[in-house]
Amino acid sequence: MLLAMLEKENDLLATNPKSVKVQAVEQLSNQQRVRPPSMAQLRDMVNGPQPSALRYSMLPPPPMTDLEFYAALVKDYQQTAARLPTLLSNKIRKGIPPPLRGVVWQSMSGACDASLEEQYERFSGESSPYEPMIGKDLGRSFPGVDMFRDPEGDGQRMLGRVLKCFSLYDQKIGYCQGLAFLVGPLLMHMPDKQAFCVLVR
Questions:
Q1: pLDDT digits (tens, 9 = 90+) for 47-71
Q2: C-alpha atoms less than 13 angstroms from C-alpha of 83 in its C-beta half-sphere
Q3: Residue 54, CA distances (Å) to 50, 59, 82, 83, 175 in order
Q4: Domain residue extents for the chain
Q5: Residue 28 pLDDT > 50, yes or no?
Q6: ∠ at Cα 136 (131, 140), nearest 5°?
Q7: Other Cβ atoms within 10 Å of 42 Cβ, number
Q8: Which of 74, 80, 154, 166: CA 20 to 30 A from 59?
Q9: CA distance 154 to 171
Q10: What topology does CATH give the domain 114-200?
Q11: What angle do CA 165, 186, 109 make, to 5 degrees?
């Protein structure tokens, strides 16, 4: 049997010396393919019972795609963080993908709060004693960012509204220079109402 296999390979080499190598590479690449977990498996990983004798931080991270991980993180940050702390830490260190930052930040901060959103709506219609100071700082906060460059644009309008609402929400702090540098990146990834909620949290 071994002799027959060797003769077959010799025949292949005689006709095309590269054929044996190509077949070996194809077989190797087929063996290395690993299927990502299905949504049911992902659900079981996140929602499944936690064995008492096993700490999840000691387990190697499960093979899941970034999108599946962030979907689980947004759905239930507390549970995902408790069950996959090492994976969470690694993903955060690598950086949250820009399109997902807004929803992930909201989930991580626990900012999805209807009462905060109602307060934001209420504060939007009120005036703040800090408005002149906020107005001075708006134009110079992000001069190099297109979103905030236009004094009459949506970026500066939203930035001013969030800062004004925050000054009314937290009267102990009110407004201080530099708050715009916290709010600006939030507004680059989410609407003003959600940015206010994340800032407050």
A1: 766 555 545 555 565 567 888 888 8
A2: 19
A3: 8, 8, 13, 11, 47
A4: 63-109, 114-200
A5: no
A6: 135
A7: 18
A8: 74
A9: 26
A10: Helicase, Ruva Protein; domain 3 (1.10.8)
A11: 85
